[in-house]
User: Fold these one by one.
Assistant:
Number 1:
Amino acid sequence: MFTVNYHTHTARCKHASGTDRDYVQFAADHGFKTLGFADHSPQCFPGDYYSNFRMLREETEGYFSSLLALKEEFKDRIDIKIGFEAEYYPAIFRDLLNFLEPYPCDYMILGQHFLNNEYDHPQTPARGSVEYIYAYVDQVCEAMRTGYFTYLAHPDLPWCDDYSPEYFKAMEKLIACSMETKVPLEINCLGIHGSRNYPYRPFWKLVGEMSAPVVVGLDAHDQYAFTLTGVFEEAQRIIDDYNLIYTEPVLRPLHTK
């Protein structure tokens, strides 16, 4: 069973529950050896735009101080890493990096929920035309090539009513970029637990055929995610069914850039 998870949220994102300690305690009690926190990152939005599904910039200090204290307290039981799940918004990405520079950020995972820059005519790739899928792939590939992201969360998040050959052609481009940049693709356990449109098995069949590396992420939004053994079993079945290359991600600390 998996003992490493780098995709853990906190209540600061406004759609997760439980205390930081709850997550650490449950993970340690259920055999996890490494626990990475990757809450939805703050962003440096222009003007008065407000995002209701991520931590605020003024919460960043408390995020690190809380988790660093728990890292020290639980050091003999579990290794805690501190990072973020971040969208790549080209116009403000450098602002985000500058904002995070003072903090000991171990890694960022790429979780692209919106196209463009969210605040500027946003488009969600969760369901749309093939053109939206291509736009998602282009933005994600640009992000992976920056060298800042450790892995790509839920790469199969976008979906179409009709999974046409064009969908798979676009995803071939995404998978090839993953291999080129050595940014693994995540089998997302929240999608399994929530019976979402992902993990989309035909996508993972293509990943297996192209031999791209994969990781497994809990995408934990409460401490009980660490008890859901069934999602790990399904993730393992996907790996086995398509001969996927499972790997543990190589972290890319921001302060070494």
Note: The chain is about 35% helix and 10% strand.
Number 2:
Amino acid sequence: MLKLQHIGKQFDGKTVLDDISFEIGTGEIMSLLGPSGSGKTTLLHLILGLTGADRGSIRFGDEDLTRVPMKKRGFNIVFQDYALFPNLNAYDNILYGLRNKKGRVNAAEVQEYIDFLELAPHLNKNIGELSGGQKQRVALARTLVTKPRLLLLDEPLSALDGVIKESIKQRLQSIAREFRLTTVIVTHDPEEALTMSDKILIINQGRIAQFGTPQDIIDRPADEFVEQFIIKQLSIKRQNILNLFGEMYA
């Protein structure tokens, strides 16, 4: 369980995050959703430990991680650009995540992640030979072999489209279920958040606009901002979104 309470953050005297509180359970996917500059990436970095909070607390299970450095939190992140090493093939990129974690993961476990993500045919390929979806899966495998307690993803679908995007969405949902891996995703795309998350935290100008399940947000938007951001950005009618959810839960 990840629990944040009354998180605040300023940069150069400007408030970036103000009184952020939420809680998500083990194996749940939560999307941080909001327009550019809303503070969602800063919040992701606070959870990871790349930057510290000015006030408030961050807890994972029974542990207070507020002042714990990033390397000791046991969390890991897949960045938007995948951050793969072009001089290494796909397999060596996956193993790179284990360079300082010898003994924690054996060869059979590494192979389990490779098989789960269907990467076996691509292991000897150079990074430049991989498609966008294949690069994303290599980045996920490299992160998963480190056995993170929490998985963070920064705009994981932004460079993908069509069938590839849908495939990665399904894989992320499968990862959370299969490995009971709590997952936090940053996205600016309401459709992504609504169709792949258990919970959504909508941020506007550094404050929580709404926190709840996708169905809650669709049925009961907290204010005009939420409704405008969700409905108008998708450029579809409310009924079409409800129809989408009808298909998902049928």
Note: The CA atoms of residues 41 and 246 lie 31 Å apart.
Number 3:
Amino acid sequence: MSQVAWAPLTEEDLPALRELALACLRADGGLPILAEEPMLRRYFLAGEGIGGRDETGDLVAAAGVTRDRSGQRSASGLVRPSARHRGLGTELAAWCSEHAGGTLLRVAVETTSPETEAFLHRLGLVRTFAEHVMRHDLLDVPRIRRPQGLRSLPWDEESAPLFHEAYRQSFAERPGFPDTPFGEWVRDLTDDPGFRPDRSRVVVDGEGRPAGFVTLSDCWVDQVGVVPQWRGRGLGAHLVARSLRALRRVGCGEAWLAVNVDNPAHALYLRLGFVDAGLRARYGQVA
């Protein structure tokens, strides 16, 4: 057993959780908003959480088990880079398994590494989903013209259905596409406090049919898609480049996006000046 004192996590642990998350992000990369209060609450305080402190009182490990709306339990954990390889991950996994009903079925990881993947594999878990987290410093933003015959519209009540239709057509062929209904999709966007309706765009052709769209949130390119018949004409590159300039104009020092590891758009984002800044992933039991 490690020489760590374990105790339930409370609101008073939020500053220490943030510092622990930042240490993991610096070492492994990943989703930067993991270190922000809403995400820390979601993963470590919304359900059952445990933290481990070393002899100096520093928080060196933390884990949480939460339930989603369907009742499915998910686990997440962090181990400080300087405290790894001491059995803390094994202790956290045992605690999560116990508090997840006896079996660890689903693990959410917003900052991961090859070590994490190998460790979870030894527990009988395999990666079920992964995204590259990418960053753009906005110092040199390319200018890419919009293809001829198209015009763009900002988000409003009238254009929202066009955004949703562009979303459906752009992603319908992706494995596991949820085909979120219009009302729910709109609520998901507009309930996000960072949503930028005035900077988001849907592009339509001469007959008013959607060709592509992009939505922005805080300093993130949240969703971007191009309907199949308009792919290969530079529309996706235009939407992203335009969004980078829009984010720079509103004061963002850098821009972020996340893209599935098997999405060919990853190569496009690299060409536009994004760099890989880590990986976020989900793991589940082998079938």
Note: The chain has eight helices and twelve strands.
Number 4:
Amino acid sequence: MKNIILTDWGTIDYREAWRRQEEIFDRQIDNKQNNLPTENNLIFCEHPHVYTIGKSGNAGNMLIDDGTVPVYRTDRGGDITYHGFGQIVGYPVFDLESLGIGLREYITRLEEAVIRLLGDYDIEGGHSAEGTGVWIDTALPAKARKICAIGVRSSRYVTMHGFALNVNTDLSYFGRINPCGFTDRGVTSMKKELGKSLDIDEVKQKLFKHIEEVFYK
């Protein structure tokens, strides 16, 4: 059975992480085109404060741009989101053909891994018909809040970009945007839900275990 190769880049500039991702992504596509074996790589990291907008995102969802936080237009799906310290950013560069799944199933499984992780901390997460990612209180629209955003790119069934899970994240930075394009939904973090900070390395370990489970069940 093939394994997921986990790498932790620690704290890294967003643009540099994007460049490194593309190197891995391009290599996997080249391997597929040349009938060579592919790998399934998962990168964990944290980014210094940054806003990113998906390829079809609305720049108008950037409400306050005072030049203090970089803003990047990217080639992932989805709208605008924030990355910052205390957030686990995951970049799976997976060959979906090797896993026998399509893009929709891939996103659902990423969501499921995060939902299982939240369950380890007695936080009830769920899917939402209104958008990708993992949400809290999806059955109560007035209270629904996103805890994990997902935005991906896929070519020849190889993925890049990925998810951002708010662990100990400073949520005030989301006040400068309409997160993921929503004007009537809030955001939250594991810290906010539990009322205490968490050991982010412990969360990463548990999350990796659940990602392995949902992709190699």
Note: Helices lie at 14-33, 96-99, 103-120, 190-194, 200-215.
